[in-house]
Amino acid sequence: MNDHQKLIIRHRLGIAVQKLVLQNMQDASGETVDSLRQLGVSADIEYYIVQKISSGKKDPQFTTLVSIAAGFNIPVSDLAAMFQTITDEEALMQIEKQKRDAKKKAAKKK
């Protein structure tokens, strides 16, 4: 597996985490994780790590994935199933958007 393929996989995972948070936001029970910050607390993971994973900037260890699934109160297999629904094209779109945003941010600093 080359670095580009790994980048796509990281972003697919990040999108999967984002989609699980969005699904939970639509759950009216009020007992679900509906933000990345709340996921960090629920999964006992530092917020900045959750944020980096959700943006595809961090390649988590398996134990971190288990903690994330536990934070959502779902089995790891459900997290993996959500990951499988994300296409490489979706990941590539997120990567391109992050690149554009970084360029805009750099241009504002000048």
UniProtKB/TrEMBL annotation:
<dbReference type="InterPro" id="IPR001387">
    <property type="entry name" value="Cro/C1-type_HTH"/>
</dbReference>
<protein>
    <recommendedName>
        <fullName>HTH cro/C1-type domain-containing protein</fullName>
    </recommendedName>
</protein>
<dbReference type="InterPro" id="IPR010982">
    <property type="entry name" value="Lambda_DNA-bd_dom_sf"/>
</dbReference>
<feature type="domain" description="HTH cro/C1-type">
    <location>
        <begin position="55"/>
        <end position="79"/>
    </location>
</feature>
